[in-house]
Each structure stands twice: as structure tokens, then as C-alpha cells.
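lol forgot to send this yesterday, sorry. C-alpha cells for the thing we talked abt
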């Protein structure tokens, strides 16, 4: 028992010297780029998916209390289909400590560039930005996000010679939620996203701009 006490004393001393942070594990980062997927969107009988993003308040510049619009960021959102084509984009405002909730069916996939029909699965990319323009994002850390995913309980594949490898999913359905994955934003990727969004909005004559939910509105 005495020997254990002698071993613990140096550990305690080191912890105090480091300001009590010797065992700290979850350290913030400066991530500005996040990705996730959506599945079974606009599918009969399946529930809607939701993208939720918060502003962690790190950009706040005044020490005043809650309710003051300060440290505002924008979630620059880019929605791709399963053919790797950008189909919609937008930049949604989120003030410090604010929450944005976006419906996959009713907002992110409802107003897309091409008019080719409903999107059922694909990729969502988000840049934490100081710009309200999705065609010219200015990366700035401070946003964190989560997304719900609609999963099928049964999956069937076409059979027979030459059948396409394309699964047909069916309910009942269940919902999972995961944090958006941190990704590396290269200058090329940033430029491509802004350019594709700009071309799409221009050629689409207004189509493709996903609507933004009012802050703090939940559905």
C-alpha cells in the first residue's frame, strides 16, 4: 500500500504542474471541411433525413451574454447525387451558439439544377465559411455537424446474366445519426466546389439553390 502511494505521488505532482491537463483527451481542432452521405431520400415510406450544424461560438468577439448576434458563420453546403454530380448548393447563416437544421427531402434535394427527378442517395459536403456566398466560400473554423441516415432493413439485388449491380432497399426503416467526418480541404477542392456551384446556379436560372431553415427552427 505504501509502495502504491509512493508511485501515485509523482503522477499527482506532474498533473498539478501541467495545470491538471495531463489526462485531457478531447482537444478542439481547426477543421473547416466536413463530409457525410444521405440514403433512401425521397423514398416512399421512408422517414426524412436531417443535417444539423451548430456554431461553437469560437468566433465570438464580444464578452456579452447569450442572444447577441456575434461570431456569425455560414455553412456552405454542397449536395451531390450518386453519379458524383453536384445537384444543389447553398450557404446558411449560423450565429454563435446557433443551430441549423436542414431537411434532406424538403430542402437539400428538393430544388436541384438539372430537373432530372428526385435524388435518393449521395454525398453532402460542408465548408465552415465566413462568406454568405456558396460560390466563393472563405474557410473559417467554428462549425460542427451531425446527420441522420435512413437505413433499410431489407436489401435485394437484381439477378440473372448482365443484371446491374444495383440494390433495391425497402422498409421497415431505421434511423442512425453520426457526426460529420472531418476532411482535408485542398485549394483545388475548394475552388471546384465554388465553381461548380456558380455554374449550376447560373445555368439553372435559380434552380439548385437549397433553401435554408430559419435558425433554431426544428421539424
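and heres what i got for the seq, position by position
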Amino acid at each position: 500500500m505504501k509502495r502504491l502511494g509512493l508511485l501515485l505521488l509523482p503522477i499527482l505532482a506532474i498533473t498539478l504542474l501541467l495545470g491538471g491537463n495531463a489526462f485531457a483527451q478531447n482537444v478542439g481542432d481547426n477543421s473547416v471541411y466536413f463530409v457525410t452521405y444521405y440514403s433512401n431520400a425521397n423514398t416512399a415510406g421512408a422517414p426524412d433525413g436531417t443535417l444539423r450544424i451548430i456554431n461553437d461560438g469560437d468566433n465570438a468577439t464580444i464578452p456579452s451574454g447569450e442572444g447577441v448576434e456575434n461570431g456569425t458563420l455560414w455553412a456552405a453546403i454542397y449536395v451531390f447525387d450518386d453519379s458524383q454530380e453536384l445537384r444543389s448548393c447553398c450557404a446558411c447563416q449560423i450565429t454563435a451558439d446557433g443551430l441549423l437544421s436542414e431537411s434532406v427531402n424538403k430542402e437539400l434535394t428538393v430544388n436541384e439544377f438539372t430537373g432530372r427527378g428526385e435524388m435518393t442517395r449521395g454525398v453532402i459536403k460542408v465548408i465552415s465559411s465566413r462568406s454568405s456566398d456558396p460560390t466563393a466560400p472563405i474557410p473559417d473554423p467554428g462549425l460542427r455537424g451531425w446527420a441522420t441516415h435512413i437505413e433499410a432493413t431489407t436489401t435485394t439485388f437484381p439477378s440473372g446474366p448482365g443484371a446491374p449491380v444495383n440494390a433495391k432497399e425497402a422498409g421497415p426503416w431505421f434511423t442512425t445519426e453520426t457526426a460529420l467526418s472531418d476532411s482535408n480541404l485542398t485549394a483545388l477542392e475548394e475552388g471546384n466546389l465554388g465553381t461548380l456551384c456558380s455554374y449550376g446556379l447560373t445555368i439553372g436560372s435559380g434552380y439548385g439553390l437549397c433553401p435554408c431553415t430559419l435558425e433554431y427552427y426544428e421539424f
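The chain has one domain: 28-156+167-203. anyway ping me if u want another try
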